Amino acid sequence: MLLSNLKVPFDTAVCDRIVAESHGNPLALLELPRTWNITDLAGGFGLPTRLQVAGKIEQSYATRLVALPATTQLLVLTAAAEPLGDPLLLHRAGEILGFELADSVAAVDAGLLDISPTVSFVHPLIRSAAYGSAADDDRHRVHRALADATDPDRGADRRAWHRSARFVGAR
After folding, report:
1. 69: cis peptide before it, omega within 30°?
2. Calpha distance 99→141 (Å, rounded)
């Protein structure tokens, strides 16, 4: 599994380092190599980073998210800001923000998002990476759209939370 994710040859000591840093976590075995540059894979020349395994995995997800089309990134950020995964709410927010649920295909194909029957992330660190790596202005805009898209009669608490989050940059 590890060897299939690395696109370059690497030293045995580097493989041992990857296995050690993953602490047996299969997700880490998949994601850690994506966070390393060629110096890291050369073995022994680069200094080890101080990020914890979860931080490295989240960094890998953030890098993968940036590679998605802009409308897909906005959809993923909106899904990250709305923890219930309500596809109808996401659709209404998308009308305000300028994306469609069809824009999710790239994120689904990348193994980041699942849309059935609710909108959810394949792993919680993807949600964290999507929200944490977004610009404050984008987070505020998404919360404003979610507040406006939330039914004021049935979701008053949720609407109020999104309204406040757009001002304070809730994380």
Report:
1. no
2. 13
Token look-up 């000591």 returns 13
The residue type at 110 = A
Residue 122 · residue 112 · CB < 8 Å: yes
Q: Residue 159: how many CB atoms within 10 A of its CB?
A: 18
Rounded Cα gap, residues 75 and 78, in angstroms? 5
pTM: 0.70
- CA atoms of 32 and 101, how far apart (whole Å): 30
Torsion over CA: 28, 25, 134, 51 (sign): negative
- Asked if 63 contacts 71 with a C-beta cutoff of 8 angstroms, the reply is no
- 40 vs 34, which has greater pLDDT? 34
Tell me how far CA of residue 54 lies from CA of 35, 64, 110, 124, in angstroms. 12, 15, 19, 11
Written as six digits, the tokens of 118 are: 């609710």
Q: Can you state the percent helix, strand and coil of the chain, rounding each to 5?
A: 65, 5, 30
Query: Could you read off the pLDDT of 116-139 as tens digits, one per residue?
Result: 889 999 888 899 899 999 999 999
Rounded CA gap, 66 and 86, in Å?
24
